[in-house]
Amino acid sequence: MIRERGQREVFCGLTGIVWLHRKIQDAFFLVVGSRTCAHLIQSAAGVMIFAEPRFATAIIDERDLAGLSDANAELDRIVAQLLERRPDIKLLFLVGSCPSEVIKLDLSRAALRLSRDHAPGVRILNYSGSGIETTFTQGEDACLASLVPEMAPEATDAAPSLLVVGALADVVEDQFKRLFAALGIGPVQFLPPRRAADLPAVGRKTTYILAQPFLGDTARALDDRGATRIDAPFPLGAEGTSLWFGAAAAAFGIDPAHVESVLAPARDRAMRPLSRYRLALKGKRIFFFPDSQLEVPLARFLSRELGMKLVEVGTPYLHREHLAADLALLPDDVVLSEGQDVEKQLDRCRAQNPDLVVCGLGLANPLEAEGLTTKWSIELVFTPIQGFEQAGDLAELFVRPLARRTKLVA
Amino acid sequence: MQLTVWTYEGPPHVGAMRIATGMEGVHYVLHAPQGDTYADLLFTMIERRQKRPPVTYTTFQARDLGSDTANLFKSAVQDAYDRFQPQAILVGASCTAELIQDDPGGLAEALHLPVPIVALELPSYQKKENWGAAETFYRLVRTFAGPHALAPGAKRAPRAAERRPSCNLLGATALGFRHRDDGAEIIRLLASIGVDVNVAAPMGATPADLARLGDADFNVVLYPEIAGPSAKWLEKAFAQPCTKVVPIGVGATRDFIAEVGALANIDVSTMLDAEQSRLPWYSRSVDSTYLTGKRVFIFGDATHAVAAARIAAEELGFTVVAVGSYSREFARDIRDAAQKYGAEALITDDFLAVEQHIQALQPELVLGTQMERHIAKRLKIPCAVISAPVHVQDFPARYSPQMGFEGANVIFDTFVHPLMMGLEEHLLGMFRDEDGEFSDTAVPSHLAASGAAPILVMPQAVPSADAITLDWAPEAQKELGKIPFFVRGKARRNTEKFAAERGLPRITIETLYDAKAHFSR
């Protein structure tokens, strides 16, 4: 296990907005930050920004830095302007950034004040997506954790319910719903919901299962509300998805024979493309730079289901408890690294000369130019990869760059 | 505070990165929180550079705040020097580090490195990207050319008779819109009139090259937004005059040649007499008659907007309805151009204001940045890109300058194509309702003899032998709708083929995914 500190070539948590705003359809994300923050989101969002985006930045300027009371009045003005322009918005997140945190602009208090001013039409919450506090997908964690106190307490006569936590593509969410129904587990709800008003209730009868590995704070907040977590590997690949559903079914006391009868056809179907991709990936050596915290479950999937050899598995942060089940399935001799010193990690990567490098877009082309084959990691966050039906797609994401390299003659 | 959906310019430290990345032998150590490394991918992805930008970030986190950040910065500078061995180190702070008030310049000096340290003060809460680039270039020029400056009041020695006139080419940076090819085009143009290029900077130059800037007779300012302050200082320090005309468009290029002739004290009349661009003839040919009076809306950085306005009005015969820019520093130039062509002037960096303006004026062509391209797309107005910010497609593989005579050819094509396409589409749309040949239900004429089925706009309506017997369950149909539109047609075809081959009478969600598993490679 390597633990490093140094230059980190990673996104900050603001980037989470790019997929979260697609998920919660009546929410708006207002970053309170600098021009850098606005520039970051627009660079990360690419062309998506033009479909009347549900995010924006309140850019702090020198007048705001002069005195804090002024900044609060400015924020109120901007929020009023925004809500007037977008009356369809029901939930507004004030998203903290590095500058807003360093000047100690109290956005949680601002959220309370603004919620009062704009009640009952709009609920205003706050979380931090700053680089000093959060790395990339941790922005989603902070966002979901801010939703947990907003969840209603479950009714006293509530039946046991399952809560699936972590933003999933709609198509994946729907597949999961159908499988849970076939297993006989219900009611099943999802956090985040597709609409702000559909925020599920929570309490002692709530059992939750994480669909994403980067949700430490959200899990803690749910624990505090009395909910119980189901321990499972993450639903990537045929095996991971089987184990994930199996763990949920076990928690709900479903007959294992029934579980097997429901999961077997889907698992078999998932394994058909995997067996083909295995031919292309078996024995290939892969190196992960830290990015999303998805690295450990991905490495587990690639090593166990596709026969890849793990050179180094980097993660920005390793939540040992939530990843226990995945870690247990990794080969014993795996090299894990937490944190980053990018120059040293690049040295290790070059020295190892892996067949495939998973890394961010800042490193991908330079490494390709050095002769290494890369798979850019951010695609793994934006593409539906969880569940049985996506297992083949997930494998294909790793096959494609290798296949391309062999195809290009010149 | 300002509510911002889109920003035309990044923060000033991105401007500094554009200088450092364009140059050789310079390394930039940026005091910045974790996450600011996002800017690297502008260079590696949009400009497709094969090397990482020469930038080291301290990437401090919350736990580092307090006394630790200053040490973090010092060790980052030392490590960067040891690893990259640059000829000069730029140091500075991004917006957040500006607030925590470590002193990058002082901290770096304390290390006593054997190379010059250039400390940058880039006020992030007042200034923007282009200003940052201009300031950084100016600091570098002063640092390296400064020691060779003429004594105050001294005159330049006249150029020796046997030596060809020479100039510096100033302003091209990394991530500049067509800077790569503009540089090549202008070097070629200058060579053809007998002027040598002493140093082209910042793109491609080293600190040692900057030290030689004073050797040239005059300066060519390609992009005033970036090279303006440096050229002004060089004028004072070395008595080097500089060009004022930016050679974008045939008229401007000719003016530029005349200006260079005067500065270099050479005869350029043969060069001016020779017709070097196809634009004037193309624009006079009768095919271009329909361009007359087309109402065009122009927005971009000041240099490109002013140049585009002149080309539009004088070389293509358009009617300019507005000239606008996000470069507030050049507001006067924009107003002058607008007045000259009887157009509205628009100085704003608010994307929503530009959108409202375009909507209100309803132009027939929009010339702008990446943002205007999207506004125009939404309003269904033809559009061409003339200025940064731009996306990856505007860093093309092919030679595509904006400047000089070849640049004028490129511009003619670029401005006119969207109008042609717009016209084509309009005609097709008009005929679709009335003319049998263009209707959705018509068989393509070249296929009529073979008895082919008509190509319909909605692919699901394609009648085929299979479709008659295949029955999509409503929930499967719905699931299909969740597949992105650009692969949906393929998914439908594959599923139907799969079902037909197996004699399945009804397509369910299961069938859809069975087929997906079957066909995935």
Any overview of this molecule?
The complex is a heterodimer of chains A (410) and B (521). Chain A contains 17 helices and 14 strands. Chain A has 410 residues and is of the alpha/beta class. In chain A, β8 (206-210), α9 (216-224) and β9 form a beta-alpha-beta unit. In chain A, α10 runs antiparallel to α11 and α11 (256-281) runs parallel beside α17. The longest helix of chain A has 26 residues, at 256-281. Chain A is globular. Chain B is built from 21 helices and 15 strands. Chain B has helices spanning 12-22, 40-46, 68-84, 95-100, 104-109, 129-145, 179-192, 207-211, 224-238, 250-264, 269-273, 279-284, 302-315, 331-340, 351-361, 370-379, 404-434, 465-469, 474-481, 485-502, 509-519, and strands at residues 2-4, 26-31, 55-57, 88-93, 117-119, 166-172, 196-202, 218-221, 295-300, 319-325, 344-347, 365-368, 383-385, 471-472, 506-507. In chain B, α16 (370-379) links the parallel β12 and β13 (383-385). The longest helix of chain B has 31 residues, at 404-434. Residues 454-468 of chain B have low confidence and may be disordered. Classes of the chains: A alpha/beta (410), B alpha/beta (521). The interface between A and B is large, with 75 and 66 residues.
Summarize the helices and strands and which ones pair or pack.
The complex is a heterodimer of chains A (410) and B (521).
Chain A: E1 2-4, H1 17-23, E2 27-33, H2 35-45, E3 55-59, H3 62-66, H4 68-85, E4 91-96, H5 98-102, H6 107-118, E5 123-128, H7 138-147, E6 161-165, H8 170-183, E7 188-191, E8 206-210, H9 216-224, E9 228-230, H10 237-251, H11 256-281, E10 285-288, H12 295-306, E11 309-315, H13 324-328, E12 336-339, H14 342-352, E13 356-359, H15 361-369, E14 374-376, H16 379-382, H17 391-407
Parallel strand pairs in A: 1-12, 2-3, 2-4, 4-5, 6-7, 6-8, 8-9, 10-11, 10-13, 11-12, 13-14
Helix pairs in contact in A: 7-9, 10-11, 11-17
Chain B: E1 2-4, H1 12-22, E2 26-31, H2 40-46, E3 55-57, H3 68-84, E4 88-93, H4 95-100, H5 104-109, E5 117-119, H6 129-145, E6 166-172, H7 179-192, E7 196-202, H8 207-211, E8 218-221, H9 224-238, H10 250-264, H11 269-273, H12 279-284, E9 295-300, H13 302-315, E10 319-325, H14 331-340, E11 344-347, H15 351-361, E12 365-368, H16 370-379, E13 383-385, H17 404-434, H18 465-469, E14 471-472, H19 474-481, H20 485-502, E15 506-507, H21 509-519
Parallel strand pairs in B: 2-3, 2-4, 4-5, 6-7, 6-8, 9-10, 9-12, 10-11, 12-13, 14-15
Helix pairs in contact in B: 1-6, 6-9, 7-17, 13-14, 15-16, 19-21, 20-21
